[in-house]
Amino acid sequence: MAILGALVFCVVGSFAYVGGWLSPGLLTPGRFADGFQEVFGVHPGFRRNHAKGLCVGGYFESNGQGARLSKASVFEPGRVAVTGRFSLAGGQPFAADGPAAVRGFGLRFEPRYGGQWRTAMVDIPVFAVGTPEGFYDQLLASKIDPATGKPDPAKMTAFLAAHPETVRAITIIKAKPFSSGFANATFNGLNVFRFTNAAGDTTPVRWSMVPVDAFAPEGPADAQDKNYLFDALIARLRRGPVQWHMIITIGQPGDPTDDATLPWPDTREHLDVGTLTLDSVAAEAPGNCRDINFDPLVLPDGIAPSDDPLLSARSAVYSQSFTRRAGETKEPSAVTPAEVGQ
Amino acid sequence: MSGSERVTRWTGNGQFALPSRILHWTMAAMVLTMLFIGVAMVASLADYHLLVSIHRPLGIAILVLVIIRYVNRKLNSPPEFIATMPPEERIAAHYSELLMYAMMFAMPLIGWGMLSAARYPIVLFGPIHLPPILPHSLMLYAVLRKTHTIVAYLFFATFIAHFSGVLFHTLIMRDGLIDRMVPWRVRGPEINPP
């Protein structure tokens, strides 16, 4: 009987162990999502991060150059439909637009015969943290103290003291001026991925969407319009399609692939693989970009993750956020259909 | 049943048919692996992507095998229950078998369905992917996702009951119940050693 008990205990015990129930301090996707909720509050139906957003649609016209690096069907010459979502970092779905928030761009490429690709990019050149644990600690350190309306400076100082890579990354981020809006911003994939071509050659790469619209420096927040960044994008799209060049940066042996805080040298080859054209816009609604998880690890054959620890963690936490909001009652987004002119 | 009693190990037709035994052990390993991967991946940041990449094709492999297994179950009847099993245990064994078949069918279908409702591509490996089987609906995804977890725990509990029952027969009663399912050939009926 003792042997029986021991065997059953071992199986149940190892099940509980791998399920994380025996490790209360473990940083799990669920605990990560709890962290967002602790800092930003719970806003049912909305993403736990990049909560405020707007849907766009259009197409990517590949020039065929990318096929040199990746066998993904997206890079064959021709058009692929895309669905996108512009967003502001942070978990407040009704926050006022402002210069402080990092802008996000989620994009889903939809080749007709499979090989779907999703990416979630931001308008900063490198990421401020290199590990999921760093991200979590930074998140909690940036929590607004209700007494002062600002993050506790002591917590942020302690975080930066423990994370010299973040101090270096912030210097790089601040050195590059931000653009005036979504349409003229450069969006970067940040993490390194691996492209594999038809011959089986694998190359470490990063990618960026470089705008065709002329750069204009960022101005102060518009006190009259809480949604001035989104409204400017809507107005811009009414005047005509907005375009970006998709630029692949090709890594060399020795370039760091596992640390999103480290940029690659400017001398790396940049390959223009095609043009992204956005020509439609819609408020978040059932079945559109609102209901897509822009999980950066939804990758086609020919694109694979690097050894960057942020990637699997992003996938896990995005999925956790998606699952939580999927079951919640939805309310209209801050940027409404009326605002979009639907 | 006291240990001194001489017990007939089998009273029926002996072992399960060879295909049944192969399917049983192959799928036992796969299902148990799936249950462990399932709870591990929802708790893991670092291994989430790798585990999900295994979870999807392994689940579909189980779906294919359970169809084969169901056909095999119709073709190869199981041996009769052994004499040491009282009627209520036979009823429990019968229904737990039914339940496990139902769950082996349901779990991959719920998984496939929930990924469909969320509009995730259902990639097996490389460019091989499955079509969506349900419309794009977040609420549908939420319900199926929850169901997937609940059925997984029910499956694990049923497995533990099955495992404990077989261990009880094997270690305590020593009636050779497990010989009916072992992959190798065992001839019966035999007499339990004193």
Summarize the model shown.
The complex is a heterodimer of chains A (342) and B (194). Chain A is of the alpha+beta class.
Q: Count every helix of chain A, treating DSSP H or I runs of 4 or more residues as helices.
A: 8
What is the helix content of chain A?
A: 25-40%
Number of domains of chain A: 1
Distance between the termini of chain A: 70 Å
Mean pLDDT of chain A: 96
Helical run tally of chain B: 4
- Rg over alpha carbons of chain B: 20 Å
Strand order of the largest sheet of chain B: 1-2
Question: How many β-strand stretches of chain A?
Answer: 12
Number of domains of chain B: 1
Mean pLDDT of chain B comes to 90
Structure notes:
The complex is a heterodimer of chains A (342) and B (194). Chain A has helices at 2-18, 29-40, 132-141, 153-162, 164-175, 228-239, 309-326, 337-340, and strands at 52-62, 78-88, 103-110, 117-122, 144-145, 150-151, 187-188, 193-196, 202-211, 242-250, 270-282, 303-305. Chain A is built from 8 helices and 12 strands. Chain A is globular and about 75 Å long. Chain A is α+β, with helices and mostly antiparallel strands and 342 residues long. Chain A has a single domain (41-125, 176-340), classed as Catalase HpII,  Chain A, domain 1 (Beta Barrel). Chain B has 194 residues and is mainly alpha-helical. Chain B has one domain. In chain B, strands 1-2 form a two-stranded antiparallel ribbon. In chain B, helix 1 runs antiparallel to helix 2 and helix 3 packs antiparallel against helix 4. The two termini of chain B are 13 Å apart. The chains are: A alpha+beta (342), B mainly alpha (194).
